[in-house]
């Protein structure tokens, strides 16, 4: 550490001790071959000018210019900001990449801002101003998503950081980014919470509380077991009966459109708040992660909360069948036959393929609202993780219209989707069955497991526009997404919100 840097750091510590705990995150672009100078963002250039070029000087003498996603911290450059973190944004000319199916610029901003904010959080800086880096929404998303860490049951917690944009910014874009990030963080919080704290009842209560500020636009119905029985949801009930926790069918109505008669978009989420596998018991290693098997319910409910916060002019209904899948004397046994809401019988050969059972009844019920489109999300199969890993959620759909718009939304958010097949080849594997109309696993259980699961769900869909998102592969984050810490990811909440934002005035929903 140079003498100048050492003295600056000492000054930073003195300022912090006196309560001046404020930091700044600024962006710098990667050096181009035809340009030897340092290229700062608009906000960073204005800051540099205000301190007579000291930032450029320090960047020059501190070594090679920052590469994308890297950071450098300076102390004592400005009296209002004891610590300044400069982050690398990569090349300034990048945009949508056809090969990667995302916007490189937006992803770079999210990643860079998250790095800078975390750096300051580690220094226990409580208030951070953030360079919008030319895209206020992406910068806000990077800040909000990057700072999130689930530590509710830890005695020692990270410092809570508040963020705001630095310099001129489109305030609406920034606020939109904050709401997008908050929405995904809500899903992450639900998915991370221990299963003894997020039971079906607790999940429903949490979502009701989050929607309370929008009570004039949202109706929340927490349907009890007696209602589920009256709706003849035999497949859902067969899964829930193995647990001491009572099931809840959560039903949310968001009336965002001025036309109250507008047919809704229905979002359906798998809500297994803990999945032991039932009698087909899972291995104990890694079973704790099955507290997040309600990731589908978490993402669709969080998307609806975000849509309400954004006041999007569209009618949305959210449905989440919530229960535990546990082994007991009352639990489903391999070979049992149950009857779904639409009358179809199902042979349950694997009690660990329970998500499709609860979704079957929820999808049947979704049709009672005469929806324009139905999208369901579920951490449904390990097979989709084998196929796609954490790069994208698998989408199975009968609608090119839905697919095109989901894909466009995912390019904007960087939280990608990838289309998977719905061939009759897979349908035959779950319909050719000895004891019942359907089997809950394919004849060749290890082959095309994500595809046979989707084929099973399609047996409960008559809507022209339906999409099933298998999100098991994107449930967690190790180090794949740089602006998310390790843990439950909350994906693809932002893609669902962006899709809703994208279609709110489309031909399908405007007439």
Describe the structure.
The structure is a single chain. With 511 residues, the protein is of the alpha/beta class. It is 37% helix and 21% strand. The protein is built from 16 helices and 22 strands. Strands 9, 10, 11, 12, 13, 16, 17, 18 and 20 form a nine-stranded mixed β-sheet that branches. A hairpin with a 4-residue loop joins strand 5 and strand 6. Helix 4 packs across helix 5, helix 6 runs antiparallel to helix 10 and helix 10 crosses helix 16. 54% of the residues are buried. Its EC number is 3.4.11.1, 3.4.11.5, 3.4.13.23. One of its GO terms (cellular component) is cytoplasm. GO terms for molecular function: manganese ion binding; metalloaminopeptidase activity. This is Cytosol aminopeptidase.
Terminal residue distance: 66 Å
Count up the helices.
Answer: 16
The CATH architecture name of the largest domain reads: 3-Layer(aba) Sandwich
- Say how many strands there are: 22
The biggest beta sheet, please?
Answer: 9 strands, mixed
Q: CATH superfamily name of the largest domain?
A: Zn peptidases
Which fold name fills CATH's third level, the topology of the largest domain?
Aminopeptidase
List the uncertain runs. Answer: none
State the helicity in percent bands: 25-40%
Helix/sheet category: alpha/beta
> What is the gyration radius calculated from CA atoms?
25 Å
> Which strand-content bin applies to the residues?
15-25%
Give the integer mean of the pLDDT values. 94
**CATH class (first level) name of the largest domain:** Alpha Beta
| Total number of domains | 2
Tell me the overall shape. elongated
Signal peptide: 1-23
GO cellular component, one term: cytoplasm
Family: Belongs to the peptidase M17 family.
Protein name: Cytosol aminopeptidase
């Amino acid at each position: 550490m140079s003498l100048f840097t050492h003295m600056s750091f000492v000054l930073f510590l003195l300022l912090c001790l006196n309560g001046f705990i404020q930091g700044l995150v600024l962006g710098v672009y990667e050096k181009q071959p035809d340009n030897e100078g340092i290229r700062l963002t608009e906000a960073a250039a204005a800051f540099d000018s205000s301190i007579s070029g000291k930032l450029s000087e320090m960047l020059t003498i501190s070594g090679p210019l920052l590469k994308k996603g890297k950071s450098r911290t300076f102390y004592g450059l400005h009296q209002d900001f004891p610590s300044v973190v400069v982050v690398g944004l990569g090349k300034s000319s990048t945009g949508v990449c056809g090969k990667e199916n995302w916007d490189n610029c937006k992803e770079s901003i999210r990643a860079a801002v998250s790095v800078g904010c975390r750096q300051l959080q580690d220094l226990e800086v409580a208030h951070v101003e953030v360079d919008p880096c030319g895209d206020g929404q992406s910068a806000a998303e990077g800040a909000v998503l990057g700072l999130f860490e689930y530590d509710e049951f830890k005695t020692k917690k990270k410092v809570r950081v508040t963020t705001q944009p630095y310099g001129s910014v489109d305030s609406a874009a920034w606020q939109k980014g904050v709401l997008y990030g908050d929405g995904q963080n809500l899903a992450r919080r639900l998915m991370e919470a221990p299963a003894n704290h997020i039971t079906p009842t607790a999940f429903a209560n949490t979502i009701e509380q989050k929607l309370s500020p929008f009570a004039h636009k949202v109706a929340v119905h927490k349907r009890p077991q007696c209602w589920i029985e009256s709706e003849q949801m035999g497949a859902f009930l067969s899964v829930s009966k193995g647990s001491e926790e009572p099931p809840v069918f959560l039903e949310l109505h968001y009336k965002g459109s001025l036309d109250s008669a507008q047919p809704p978009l229905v979002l359906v989420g798998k809500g297994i708040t803990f999945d032991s596998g039932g009698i087909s018991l899972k291995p104990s290693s890694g079973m704790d992660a099955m507290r997040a098997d309600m990731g589908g319910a978490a993402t669709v409910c969080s998307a609806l909360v975000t849509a309400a916060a954004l006041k999007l002019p569209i009618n949305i209904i959210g449905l989440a069948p919530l229960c535990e899948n546990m082994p007991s004397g009352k639990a489903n046994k391999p070979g049992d036959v149950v009857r779904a809401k639409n009358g179809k019988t199902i042979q349950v050969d694997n009690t660990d393929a329970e998500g499709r059972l609860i979704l079957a009844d929820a999808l049947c019920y979704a049709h009672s609202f005469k929806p324009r489109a139905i999208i369901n999300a579920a951490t449904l199969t390990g097979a989709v993780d084998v196929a796609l890993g954490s790069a994208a959620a698998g989408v199975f759909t009968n609608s090119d219209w839905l697919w095109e718009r989901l894909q466009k939304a995912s390019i904007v958010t960087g939280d990608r989707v990838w289309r998977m097949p719905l061939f009759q080849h897979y349908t035959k594997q779950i319909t050719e069955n000895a004891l019942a109309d359907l089997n809950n696993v394919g004849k060749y259980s290890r082959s095309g497991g994500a595809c046979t699961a989707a084929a099973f769900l399609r047996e409960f869909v008559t809507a022209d526009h339906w999409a099933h998102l298998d999100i098991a592969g994107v449930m967690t984050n190790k180090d794949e997404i740089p602006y998310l810490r390790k843990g439950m990811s909350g994906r693809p909440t932002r893609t669902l919100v962006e899709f809703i934002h994208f279609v709110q005035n489309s031909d399908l929903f405007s007439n």
